[in-house]
Amino acid sequence: MVESEAAETGLDSYAGFLAEYPKTGPGTRGGDMLRRYWHPLCLSNDLKDLPYPVRMLGEDLVAFRTAEGKVGLLGARCPHRCASLEYGQIVAKGIQCSYHGWTFDRTGHCTAMPLEPANTPLKAEVKQPWYPTHEWGGFVWCYMGLDKQNPPPLPKLDLLARTDGKVTLQRGIILPGPEGTPVVVEPVDIRNYNYLAFLENFVDMGHIYALHMILPPNLPEDLRPYCDLSVDTDWHRTQHRAIETDWGIKAVVVHNTANPEVKFVNTFSVAMPIYYRFSGLGARQADFCDDRRESGGVIRIIDDKHFELIRVSLVREGNYRGRAGSFYGKSAPGTPQTMAMRGALPPKPYDRRKYPAWEGNIVLEDLVIQESQGPIPPRESEHLATSDAGVALLRRVWRQSIANVANGLPPKTIVTDNAGVFDVDTFKGFAKASDIELGPRNMPSSRDGRGLIRDDAGRLVFA
Ligand code: FES
Ligand SMILES: [Fe+2]
Questions:
Q1: Which of 57-71, 119-133, 338-352, 375-389 has the lowest mean pLDDT?
Q2: What are residue 256's DSSP bridge partners?
């Protein structure tokens, strides 16, 4: 079918959709869709007694905390003669531009023009762009949609709301240093490519095997009887599905084990449009041998070509009370194909690539490959294949939401419970074959614990 030129620029054609898909700025269809959701702006403790410049969804903004403790978020450029409010003075109810003293409250009204006549009409005419904010869960959130006076309620992300373990926020990139000691290699994790490359990678379960080459974990001795190393990782024998849910996408892999009654299930979730969730670390440890860790993070979308990752993890009150540690690692040392082996090799002096000797750490492997796709990948030149079911579904969900917003309809809904908590399920572990019915609501759940875990006496039980 030949698309008309007009259709090529709209969402009706795939090419038209691809043009909008990575857009984040104001006045774009992609950006309009993103503006229907709350976004993480910064951490609460970033806002001290100085203005805080921050770029969000392609807009340069300044956040500040008033003496009363309230957070304001205004356009960065002063409407007088364009000085940046990042150099302004925080005052009782707003911020004052340092150049000529024009002062703005948290909703963009000009409250003072000290060099102008007292009755100047200009004071009522000038409006500074502003956005509502909400502090919760250690973050400052912002809503950049049109209805600023009546934003939707902030969905409280489950990982941040949970009380059944210890929640930590991690900024920056931490890699294992000598002897496994964690080393902060970047204080903030800002990527110089479009956020969708990260999300597409997240629902691309095949890359876990091909890129990361994750193999049976090197478990501590006391866990080995409880971790079924008969898990079959042959790609052709796994059930591999991408499932649309109310809030986004679950990418699911179900592996056979030697016991036909027992399956190993791994689920990665992406909730519209900035929240990603998984269970455990590594890829093959079940919950019970992982201190029942829940992980994920939020994406702060800076603009079309930049985003920041802030990781969230919750270490639950686990069933496993034994030694923790090295079993988070990849394959057993000595296996020739392991990334650990490759990563251990010294960089070659003739390696001309930006990231020499990049293999061996999952975070770095993902970063390198995603960045190599380009700031905005030329997706029109791709050849999607069967392993891209998750990517294709993610694009369908984005396309539908972008089209809905362009047509005056709501994007994909975020459903919260009565307490405002937005529950995004993931699961990694062993489950009864009879419990697994791949579908939006029938997967084993990390919250209700329908998986194989240890009981208090150390027995392996389904619970
Ligand atoms: S430029 Fe801001 S008050 Fe003049
Ligand atoms: Fe990865």
A1: 338-352
A2: 263
201-221 CB burial, b ≥16 within 10 A, e <16:
bbbbbbbbbebbbbbbbbbbe
Residue nearest to atom 1 of ligand 1 (CA): 81
Q: Where are the beta strands (DSSP E) in 51-122?
A: 52-56, 59-65, 71-75, 89-91, 94-96, 103-105, 110-112
CATH 2.40.160 fits 156-435, yes or no: no
Q: Which residues surround ligand 2, an ion (CB under 5 A)?
A: 366
Digit-coded pLDDT (tens) for 194-205: 999 999 999 998
Ligand 2 center–CA 47 separation, angstroms: 32
Chain mean position to CA 431: 26
Q: Are strands 306-316 and 293-303 parallel, antiparallel or unpaired?
A: antiparallel
**Is the omega angle on the peptide bond into residue 273 within 30 degrees of 0, that is, cis?**
yes
Instruction: Write down the number of H helices and E strands in the chain.
Output: 10, 25
User: Residues in the chain, how many?
Assistant: 463
Distance separating alpha carbons of residues 58 and 303, to the nearest angstrom:
4
Q: Which one, of 284, 128, 262, lies nearest residue 217 by Cα?
A: 284
Which atom of ligand 1 is closest in space to residue 113's alpha carbon?
Answer: 3
Instruction: Spell out the SS3 assignment of 374-413.
Output: CCCCCHHHCCCCHHHHHHHHHHHHHHHHHHHHHCCCCCCC
Closest to 291 measured CA to CA, from 461, 433, 448, 446: 446
Q: What is the pTM of this model?
A: 0.89
Residue 268's identity, in one-letter code, is F
Closest CA to 124 of 141, 137, 111: 111
Please, which pLDDT band fits residue 174 given cuts at 50, 70 and 90?
Answer: confident
**Mean pLDDT for the chain overall:** 82
In angstroms, the Cα distances linking 286 to 195, 262, 264, 311 are: 29, 12, 8, 21
The residue type of 17 is F
Instruction: Please give the distance, rounded to the nearest whole angstrom, from the Cα atom of residue 359 to the centre of ligand 2.
Output: 12
97 lines ligand 1 (CB under 6 A): yes
Ligand nearest to the CA of 206: 2
Architecture of domain 37-143: 3-layer Sandwich (2.102)
Query: CA 164, 165, 167 angle in degrees (round to 5)?
Result: 120
Please check whether residue 402 is in contact with residue 33, taking contact to mean a CB–CB distance below 8 angstroms.
yes
Contact by Cβ (8 Å): 269, 425: yes
Q: Where are the domains of the chain?
A: 37-143, 156-435
Q: Is 78 in the pocket of ligand 1 (CB under 6 A)?
A: yes
Q: Is 350 helix (H, G, I), strand (E, B) or coil?
A: coil
Q: Is 100 in the pocket of ligand 1 (CB under 6 A)?
A: yes
